[in-house]
Amino acid sequence: MSGWRIQPMSKFIFATGLLLSFAANSAELVLKPVKIAPDIYAVIGDLGNQTFENEGLNSNLGFVVTGDGVLVINTGPSMRVARALQIAIGKITAQPVKWGVNLNSQNHYWLGNGHLNRGALRSWHTKKLTRSCAKSARRNLPAARDYL
């Protein structure tokens, strides 16, 4: 695909997710994926604003189970949410999480990338999205500390 390349997540994104995960509360977070088609699942986020109570999760996450591994669509607003997503995936399939796609640069879509990037995860996104995520993080992280 022209303009797309496969690249590991940047150190910046990993560090950002790690920083926010330290601020998370200690209660266990359990995500409940909904099967929307064979081997395709969604985690539906809250319809309101990002808050401490909803873990900042007001976007939708998803994943597709394939014979070669799992493709994650959006990792969520924190490493804590991404960990819960990985646990939820593990309850559905033994396949490893191998790929990630972020649909946009809003923090509730990608701040969990750092957690999933610890394994063999490869992320698909454009250079423009990487720059946009960095800009979004600088602008939104100070406020996110209040609810993540």
Q: Could you describe the 3D structure shown?
A:
A hairpin with a 4-residue loop joins strand 4 and strand 5. 36% of the residues are buried. The protein has a 7-stranded mixed beta sheet with strand order 1-7-6-5-4-3-2. The protein has 5 helices and 7 strands; from the N terminus they run βαββββαβααβα. The longest helix has 18 residues. Helices cover 35% and strands 21% of the residues. Helix 1 runs parallel beside helix 5. By secondary structure, it is α/β, with parallel strands linked by helices. The N terminus is likely disordered. The chain has a single domain, classed as Ribonuclease Z/Hydroxyacylglutathione hydrolase-like (Metallo-beta-lactamase, Chain A, 4-Layer Sandwich), CATH 3.60.15.10. The chain is globular and about 40 Å long.
